[in-house]
Every structure is written in structure tokens, then in C-alpha cells.
């Protein structure tokens, strides 16, 4: 009887989880139409399952928590809570002087929305311009193989998205560049220009790019790049395709 009861509870929990995931997918389709169009419904279901798993491991339990967590994932990348670009998010989520986890998450989300107004623009105009600059200015510049150092990288990022560079700051951007170098090498991006391009991609989409199901192309590219001689070409093509898709 006890074993049967446990199975019934497990079945009920699975049914409730599936109901929550369906509701979350409907919410994303309605409120994040660009993400939905670019990622696609099947891959978005994988994104949601990944997010639910991460949220549960972090201790979040309520449906509201799940919605807020996924909102931050979609805006900042699935590993927003560890991204060096956003130390204020990690600080807000771990601030045990505030109250329970749910309250910290709500506070972090509120702060994130104010940040997005300043950085992306009230209508997303700054972000749209940044996507255009990456595709039409920065990628062609990097293809010419300029001499790369951090000052050059910082200048490139400032060209792309000055509002974000101003808000994030030089120290956090330096930390971002340092933190993603091993991922770049694992993807075969070993030249200075290709490594710089990878940092640009992480600047745009989050430091966990190679592990983020929102960007399946990055994972697929890595599997193709390791044996390839020209990793830069493969990554650039996939990166540019993502930019074109986001432009709609």
C-alpha cells in the first residue's frame, strides 16, 4: 500500500509538473514572441524543462517563482545567476537579509526590469541597434584580423552597445572575457579574432552560451568545430544566422 501511495504521489507530481510546463510555454509564446519564433516550440520545451530543473535545484518551488526565473533566463541567458556581467543579480538572489528565496527572486526581477529599460530601451531600440552593429560593423571588422587586446575588445563592445557597457562596467566585462576563454578554446576558437567574436556573442546572449538550450546552434557548432581547421568560419556563420533571425 505504501509503495502504491508513493507511485500515486509521483504520478500526481508529474501531472502537475507537465501542467505547469504547458502553462509556462503558453505564457512564453504570448509574452516573448521573438524568443518563441527564433527558438521554436520544440526547442523551447527543452528550454523550459532545463529552467525548471535549474530552478528546483536552486530551491524555488512556487509557480510564480518558475515564471520569474524563466523570465530572467530569457532576458539574460539561462545562466543569468552566475554571469559576471550581472553581479547584482547574484547578489540579490543570495541576500539572506531580505527574506525567503521567493522574495529575493522577485526583488531581482524588479531590478532586472529597471536595468533593461535603461540598457535595451523602453521599446528595445538600443538592443535592436546593437544587433545590427554586431552583424554589419563588428563581424566584418573581426574578419579582417585586427590586433586584439582587452582595450580593443572594450572599444568594440562600446561600439556595439554603449548603454550596456556603461551599466555593466569595465571590471565586469573583463571578468566576462576571462570566464569564457576556456569555452572558446573548446569550440576551436583559438585565434585572437575568433576568441573576441565569442566574447561578443556572450556579451549579447550570456556567458553560458555553449551550455544554454536557448542557443542550440552554439552547442551544435562546438561539436563541429573541434575537428575543423576553420572554426571561426563555422561559428561566425551560426552567430550571424542567429542575428538575422532576431532581426525578423
Beta-strand content:
under 5%
How many helices in DSSP terms? 13
How far is it from the N-terminal to the C-terminal residue, by CA?
56 Å
Tell me how many strands there are: 0
**Helical residue percent band:** over 70%
Class from secondary-structure proportions: mainly alpha
- The gyration radius over C-alpha positions equals 19 Å
Q: What's the overall geometry?
A: globular
Domain count: 2
How are helices and strands ordered from N to C?
HHHHHHHHHHHHH
Description:
It is a single chain. The chain has 248 residues and is mainly alpha-helical. It has 2 domains: 2-119, no CATH class; 125-247, no CATH class. The chain has helices spanning 2-31, 33-39, 41-58, 63-76, 87-94, 101-119, 125-143, 150-160, 162-168, 170-186, 192-205, 216-225, 231-247. Helix 2 (33-39) crosses helix 3 (41-58). It is globular.
Please specify the SSE layout and strand pairing.
Layout: H1 2-31, H2 33-39, H3 41-58, H4 63-76, H5 87-94, H6 101-119, H7 125-143, H8 150-160, H9 162-168, H10 170-186, H11 192-205, H12 216-225, H13 231-247
Q: Which descriptors apply to this entry?
A:
248 residues, mainly alpha, 13 helices, globular, disordered N terminus
Amino acid at each position: 500500500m505504501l509503495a502504491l501511495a508513493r507511485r500515486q504521489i509521483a504520478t500526481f507530481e508529474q501531472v502537475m509538473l507537465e501542467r505547469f510546463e504547458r502553462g509556462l510555454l503558453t505564457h512564453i509564446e504570448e509574452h516573448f514572441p521573438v524568443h518563441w519564433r527564433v527558438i521554436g516550440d520544440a526547442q523551447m520545451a527543452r528550454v523550459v524543462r532545463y529552467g525548471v530543473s535549474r530552478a528546483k535545484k536552486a530551491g524555488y518551488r512556487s509557480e510564480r517563482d518558475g515564471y520569474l526565473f524563466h523570465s530572467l533566463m530569457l532576458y539574460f541567458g539561462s545562466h543569468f545567476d552566475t554571469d559576471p556581467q550581472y553581479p547584482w543579480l547574484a547578489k540579490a538572489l543570495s541576500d539572506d537579509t531580505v527574506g525567503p528565496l521567493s522574495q529575493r527572486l522577485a526583488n531581482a526581477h524588479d531590478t532586472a526590469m529597471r536595468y533593461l529599460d535603461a540598457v535595451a530601451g523602453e521599446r528595445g531600440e538600443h538592443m535592436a541597434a546593437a544587433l545590427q552593429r554586431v552583424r554589419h560593423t563588428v563581424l566584418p571588422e573581426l574578419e579582417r584580423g585586427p590586433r586584439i587586446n582587452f582595450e580593443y575588445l572594450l572599444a568594440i563592445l562600446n561600439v556595439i552597445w554603449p548603454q550596456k557597457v556603461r551599466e555593466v562596467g569595465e571590471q565586469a566585462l573583463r571578468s566576462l572575457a576571462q570566464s569564457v576563454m576556456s569555452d572558446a578554446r573548446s569550440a576551436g576558437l583559438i585565434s585572437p579574432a575568433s576568441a573576441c567574436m565569442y566574447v561578443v556573442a556572450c556579451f549579447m546572449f550570456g556567458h553560458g552560451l555553449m551550455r544554454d538550450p536557448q542557443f542550440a546552434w552554439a552547442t551544435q557548432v562546438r561539436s563541429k568545430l573541434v575537428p575543423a581547421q576553420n572554426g571561426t568560419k563555422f561559428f561566425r556563420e551560426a552567430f550571424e544566422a542567429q542575428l538575422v533571425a532576431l532581426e525578423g
